[in-house]
Design a protein that fits this description.
This protein has ten helices and seven strands. The protein is an alpha+beta fold. β4 and β5 form a beta hairpin. The two termini are about 40 Å apart.
Length: about 300
């Protein structure tokens, strides 16, 4: 859940509003019910609810980051101001107490400025994302990048998409993981059972990967016997779970002559370039080949 990234901000916000309520009680006295102006209560209460709704949308739809901070704290200042504005419909302050008037009036314009700055940053983010999506659409139309056997994109597409995803997820501070699958001794499998059997197995494997991975994931044929999947918004722990699931599903692949041995490795991307990230997961794959982790035994 996105809100889990903001739980400390939510806690601090609740404490801030609670302190404002206690301060209002300390500085003023509760009004009698006949003194309430219910029209003002309705208008100011609705304004407060709308501002709280803005906070909820920001919390539920945006990851932690600089732009999110501007949006959140700008909206929080508005909520604080509107909350005090609503309280003064129920609490009467002495004329000598000016503090509550300042706290009620000053946060709103400051919050508007902060929120506006955050909206500008959000607009810039969206323009960058739109450019990337347009680039992806044009890239997808280039059918020369598709492997004719597996109908998956190849290494060139993998590097381009991976670099784009790295930049996008770093700007939004979202996790990104890679999963690599290697067919052990695939050349020996081809020599033993024939090229047709090897091609059939590759087709089966690519169809299984496409069906088992999520729509947001991108799977490519990196080399003849190696497949790489880009897993956006995925931590290393989640990527390991996906790898274990694939491990179970791949065991169901049956070929008339047998099934080759596979090795999988998953790692979260912390590098700033696609080549460095790919090298990291391939190094982990090489280490995995020396152990029994993620290894599937042939039938």
């Amino acid at each position: 859940m996105m809100w889990r990234q903001h739980r400390y901000k939510l806690l601090c916000s609740l404490l801030l509003l609670l302190s404002a309520f206690l301060l209002a009680l300390y500085c003023g006295n509760a009004k009698q019910s006949y003194e309430f102006d219910w029209v003002d209560v309705l208008g100011e209460g609705t304004t407060l609810l709308v501002a709280c709704g803005w906070l909820g949308l920001i919390i539920s739809s945006r990851p932690a980051g600089r732009v999110t901070e501007w949006l959140y704290y700008g909206s929080l200042l508005l909520v604080y101001s509107y909350f005090l504005d609503l309280l003064d419909e129920f609490i009467q302050y002495p004329d000598a107490v000016r503090l509550m008037g300042w706290l009620e009036s000053l946060p709103a314009p400051i919050g508007m400025l902060v929120l506006t700055y955050g909206l500008i940053g959000w607009h810039r983010e969206q323009r960058a994302i739109n450019r990337q999506l347009r680039g992806r659409e044009l890239f997808l139309r280039n059918h020369e990048l598709i492997d004719p056997l597996t109908q998956l994109y190849g290494a060139e597409y993998l590097m381009a998409v991976l670099q784009r995803e790295i930049e996008l997820h770093q700007s939004q501070r979202q996790p990104l993981s890679l999963l690599v699958l290697d067919i052990q001794n695939f050349a020996d499998f081809n020599r033993r059972y024939g090229i047709a059997a090897g091609d059939h197995y590759l087709s089966q494997l690519s169809e299984l990967l496409l069906s088992q991975l999520r729509h947001s994931d991108v799977v490519c044929r990196y080399s003849g016997d190696c497949f790489v999947a880009i897993l956006p918004g995925t931590t290393e722990a989640a990527a390991q779970i996906i790898a274990q699931h694939l491990q179970q599903q791949v065991q169901q692949l049956k070929d008339a002559e047998g099934r080759p041995e596979l090795t999988m490795a998953a790692v979260q991307v912390n590098q700033h370039s696609s080549s460095a990230a790919l090298q990291a997961v391939l190094s982990m794959l090489a280490a995995a080949k020396q152990s029994t982790d993620f290894r599937l035994q042939p039938v």
